[in-house]
Amino acid sequence: MPLTGRIALVTGAARGIGRAAALRLARDGADVAVCDLQPDVEDTATRIRELGRRSAAAVVDVADPVQVGDGIRQLSEVLGDIDILVSNAAIVSNIAPLTKMSHERWQRELDINLTGAFNVVQAVIGAMIKRNWGRIIVMSSGAAHGGLHHQVAYAASKAGLIGMAQTITLEHARHGITCNAILPGLIETEKVQRMPAEIRDATAAITPARRLGSMDEVAHLIAFLATEQAGFINGAEIDIDGGMRLNTGSLGSRKEVRTQRGLDER
Fold this sequence. Notes:
This protein is α/β, with parallel strands linked by helices. It has one domain (7-194, 212-246): NAD(P)-binding Rossmann-like Domain (Rossmann fold, 3-Layer(aba) Sandwich). It has 10 helices and 7 strands. The protein has helices spanning 16-27, 41-50, 65-79, 103-131, 143-146, 152-172, 190-193, 197-205, 215-225, 254-265, and strands at 7-11, 31-36, 55-59, 84-87, 134-139, 177-184, 237-240. Helix 1 links the parallel strand 1 (7-11) and strand 2 (31-36). The chain is globular and about 45 Å long.
């Protein structure tokens, strides 16, 4: 197994892409620490242990550097220093047009999605530097390049992650550390499955692959970037969106995606 002997940490691992990534890393041989703001992140740790790998869980608000530091120390005491970080924790439910988004909601989303990633990277990278080996994967979004209607904070935070990843590469590639950003399109997570079918179908219609992505597909990409074989992939922005970025359509309002779908079907 390609990750045997490695210790991974996945944030936002209670469900969705984070949970799928944690389980994939475990299947590939890693012992996996998981954290989330939701207490049921322990369910993910239990599932990892059922796969025959070691695991530990912590309830952590990644926006709080003290909680991050304490949580990672506790997890490292159980499993060892972190070799692989998947920074996935984020919120996506802050929906409002620019003119109506409050400063507090804007700040909270940046605190979790962008500063949270910084907090976690800063907490684990010291040990990676000492060992001259590390893998950091940050979960950005196609919205980093294309924007997202009524989600200015989300798009801005995801764009910021790309700049952060590139800077980490510039500073730490010499230490055997890679840092890459993954930019998913619309993936069939639990939240996406609860979206109106109209939106999901319209998005699939403007995606060249004519479907949404699966969590397993994203998890396999994450696991590959964590391997020894991916050691010369660094500072990259890797889209996993079925080609959606090539389409001029935007994942916008219902009216807009309906219009785009109508144009596509003619």
